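Minutes, project check-in

Agenda point 3 was the complex the collaborators sent over. CS summarized: four entities, 682 residues total, and the question is how they sit relative to each other. Sequences were read into the notes so everyone works from the same version.
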Amino acid sequence: MSAGKKFEAMSGNIKKIAELAQTSKSSVSRVINNNGYVSADVRERVEKAIASINYHPNAGARTLRGSPSRLVGVLLPSLDVPFFGILAHSIEQAFFALGYQTFICSTAESQDREQAYVGMLLAQRIDGVIVASSRQEVDPFTPLRDRNIPMVAIDRPMPGLTDVCVHVDNHYGGTLLAKHLIELGHREIAIISTPRHSEPMIQRVNGACAALAEHGLKPVQIAYGNEHNLGAGRRLATKLLQKTPRPTAIIGTSDTAAIGAMHAAVDLGINVPGDLSIAGFDDIPEASYVLPRLTTVSQPTRKIGERAVHRLHQMMSGELELAVEDRLPLKLVVRQSTAKI
Amino acid sequence: MSAGKKFEAMSGNIKKIAELAQTSKSSVSRVINNNGYVSADVRERVEKAIASINYHPNAGARTLRGSPSRLVGVLLPSLDVPFFGILAHSIEQAFFALGYQTFICSTAESQDREQAYVGMLLAQRIDGVIVASSRQEVDPFTPLRDRNIPMVAIDRPMPGLTDVCVHVDNHYGGTLLAKHLIELGHREIAIISTPRHSEPMIQRVNGACAALAEHGLKPVQIAYGNEHNLGAGRRLATKLLQKTPRPTAIIGTSDTAAIGAMHAAVDLGINVPGDLSIAGFDDIPEASYVLPRLTTVSQPTRKIGERAVHRLHQMMSGELELAVEDRLPLKLVVRQSTAKI
DNA sequence: ATCAGTTATGGGATCGTTCCCATAGTGGGA
DNA sequence: TCCCACTATGGGAACGATCCCATAACTGAT
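CS then shared the predicted structure for the full assembly.
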């Protein structure tokens, strides 16, 4: 195979440390794992030897003997969407604090990739997994379930896969937005939902529709897109706003979609919130840094990640055997992108 | 330790497959690795057995025998900053396509964390590392160098650590912004740079100062912050804009800082770009989705990640032995946040 | 008939670690 | 004095994979 200078990266093993410290590998192991009897003298020699060559025990060999790998996987649709970037960040940081190493797996909503990632994670003998897949299929994840690998679902329950879930009530969040707009006098309300197959987005749409229905209303249009980015929201809104009669308000099922929609309005010379109210969902940092500042439903993104890590940690420690559904609070944050009609 | 129901997650081993397929583990290994002689009959039986229990070879055991781990590490300051989120995403995706599993390590600019992560990566016997540390210290990374672990620096060279670097000319980018503002007639130009110790940010400041100096100018103020987020930019700009005389233009060393500054201006009733021009750096997606749309220096974030992966792949394959410095192109993107004075 | 090369299969050493077990010295209680 | 508990240390078998080597059947050339 590949020629070239070979990197002789061997980083010493326990035997070498034993030689350096003039003792046996058993004693070295006892020092490293801090169990069993070791004299102060040997301990010191071993610690010196370890430091002298910057030795790090081979993690693979350890798990081979049956120790937990202290590796975990996080499966989510993407990393370059602010919401998921923040989520991944909080998860990774929380695991680090617990001494776990995290595999962040960006599945791009593709079943093939999910399957490939699950295989890789199994090969690494991960101790647990957090899944934030937004699609409905559970097939790619069943191998994890079949091996009883502790698993926490984020963003939406995954019945049949795991009984532990950390999420928000997306349906309720949808109602908050619709009620807010109704209270402001809006009757012609459109919805932009993207990506189309995302369960949380569907729930938000359903919630909004339910609240509208309570007032004998229904959305003048529900526009679906396929991507989760600003451009998608903009394109969908542009189309929407060119129809007549024009809606007086738009609900975006994410801040990204809503901010995209704001720019569609600007392009068309429509004043927000004067002629058109726009509201989003998530409360990403950018939501309060657009003009007009975006009215949105705030979800505690970081807390969701931290709670999920906490739950997974409990499962991995065998402290959690029951089904648990953590539902974190949502809050309507009224800013400047919505106004009375 | 932790009690509770034990997860009996053993996922079969090569011996079990051998039994199921009525052959030896040697033959199973040959099928899995697709080398040596195997009859069609045995191959089929083995493949069936593998599928039947969804077997995945233990990655740790493999590397124990000397195979590459196909694990790589990426060290960067954070994941919840759009720029790094996009960078991490493109790196992770590119590695996945090459069959590598990525450890994304969010170091929070802390030396302790960097050190801890490096230790964990060494324990996992990673094949290579991409480092995007913005700080100047190289100490935490020397253990990687000492083991000859292939390493690519991103965003800035890391002399003494690695000779392979993928970056942009931040100094030049700084000059682009200054020249643009000077051409528009600005003379009172302030700079907001955050986080303070980031090498790329410093280079951008230096570039801007150099271009100003060419016209006998110097920045009316350089404000430094510690965080890389919208709030930091906003706070710095608020302070800056309350002084008299007020600058007529602000250069942010990142889009994040610049967008923050725009909101400081709004808070103070200053019109952008009428009374104040603001320009950023990076061209994150949000830059074209604020109002007014942000003038900025565009860097090819995804390409940087992909190129770094390509270079690391070459190093890991032994195909790259020389020093290589990839400098990717920058481009000034003039939008609506800057105007003639 | 002999030999070499190809195809096919299985045994067993090895990688780095943990942990059980054997060994052995020491000190204190009966 | 004997015995046990405690302290301390080292040897060696596992874990799951790879891969070298031995074995053996078969082909075709000499």
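Noted in discussion: The first strand of chain B starts at residue 71 and ends at 76.
Follow-up: revisit at the next meeting once the mutant set is ready.
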